[in-house]
Specification:
Strand order of the largest sheet: 3-2-1-4-5
Number of helices: 10
Shape: globular
Pfam families: DDE_Tnp_IS240 (PF13610)
Protein name: IS6 family transposase
Largest sheet: 5 strands, mixed
Strand content: 5-15%
Oligomer: single chain
Helix content: 40-55%
Radius of gyration: 19 Å
Keywords: DNA recombination, DNA-binding, Transposition
Distance between the termini: 25 Å
Organism: Paracoccus benzoatiresistens
Length: 235
């Protein structure tokens, strides 16, 4: 179903192109809200960082859902990993799954690091992907074994820290944003932000082992998709 952009932007004083550009800057690059405000001001667009924050809340999830809907088929090898994050003084766990190409499949912020939490992640992944993987790669956390035996008994499960660098490396952009944002304020905020952030990163992800012309072509295609998702013309 095609998105109704007129209804999406109804009642907003700023045009869709300005809103979409502000949201793109915030989720695409490791920038604070105040830095995005300053970058827009340099272009003659006077808007407060609080307005940009509200735009991110309202439009970020909508853009991310549309990007996910248009996403090409993901890989059949899932790399899963979890990392500790501190939210409001309490330790939580950020669970993330990526495929063999580094495309983020999903993220889930949870307060637990046990079999129950691992099962919740696997159920979410299977529902979103509509299938089970050919291979699942994790570290040696035993919770993954218990979850896999229950939910994906026929899937090959490889447990080795060295094999899971792809998932571990996928946490690095989150760490950078966490520092810039001076930590996440709540589990809900972290979940909403990262769900959008990772989909935008997927869209604008460019292969490193390719030619410069191919990277430029990939980037042009990503910008064209973003413009269509946001309902604005390509600059």
């Amino acid at each position: 179903m095609k998105m109704n952009h007129a209804a999406l932007y109804a009642g907003h004083r700023y045009p869709a192109a300005v809103i979409a550009h502000a949201v793109w800057l915030y989720f695409r690059f490791p920038l604070s809200l105040r830095k995005v405000e300053e970058m827009l001001a340099e272009r003659g667009i006077v808007v407060s960082h609080e307005t940009i924050r509200r735009w991110g809340l309202k439009f970020g999830g909508t853009y991310a859902a549309e990007i996910r809907r248009r996403q090409r088929a993901t890989g059949d090898k899932w790399h899963l990993d979890e990392v500790a994050i501190l939210i409001a003084g309490k330790k939580h766990w950020l669970w993330r799954a990526v495929d063999q190409q580094g495309v983020v499949l999903d993220v889930l912020v949870q307060s637990r690091r046990d079999a129950r939490a691992a099962k919740r992640l696997l159920r979410k992944l299977m529902k979103r992907q509509g299938r089970v993987p050919r291979v699942m790669v994790t570290d040696k956390l035993r919770s993954y074994c218990a979850a896999a035996r229950t939910l994906m008994p026929g899937v090959e499960h490889r447990q080795h820290k060295g094999l899971n660098n792809r998932a571990e490396n996928s946490h690095q952009p989150t760490r950078r944003r966490e520092r810039i944002m001076k930590r996440f304020k709540s589990p809900g905020q972290a979940q909403r932000f990262l769900a959008t952030h990772d989909q935008v990163a997927n869209l604008f992800r460019t292969p490193t082992t390719t030619t410069a012309d191919h990277r430029r072509q990939t980037r042009r295609q990503a910008h064209a998709i973003w413009a269509d998702v946001a309902g604005v013309g390509v600059a």
